[in-house]
Amino acid sequence: MEKDLVKIFNRLKSILKKYEDPFKSKVDLDSKYDLWSFKKFEIAGRERDEVYFAGLIIQSKYVGFYYMPIYVDASLKDVFEPDLLKLLKGKSCFHVKTLDDKLEGQIEDALESGYELYKKRGWI
Fold this sequence. Notes:
Layout: H1 3-16, E1 32-43, E2 46-58, E3 63-67, H2 69-72, H3 82-85, E4 88-89, E5 93-96, H4 101-121
Helix pairs in contact: 1-4
C-alpha cells in the first residue's frame, strides 16, 4: 500500500467518523471503512432495515470515496466544486489520488449535504 494513500485514507476516515452517530460502521479496517444507517424505512416501495451512506477503500492507485447520497439524489452534483466533481467516476465513487485542504473541505461539505438529505428523508 502506498504511504500517501494511507494518509489520504486516514484524513478522510477522521472526517467520516464524525458521522458515526447516527450512522454505524459495518467495516472499520486500516484500508476499508463504511457508514450505514440502521433504521426501518421504505425506499422505492421496499421495506429496508439499513441504507449505505458513505465509505472509503484503499485501491492500488487511489482512495475510493463512496458517497451514496449522490446516487440517491443526483442534483447534489450541482453543489459540488469542480475539484471534487472531476474525481467522480461512475455514479457514486470518487477517486482521490491527492488531498489538500480545499478538496478536504469540499468532501466535508458533500458529507454534510448528504447527511441533511438522509435526515430529510427520515433515513436517520
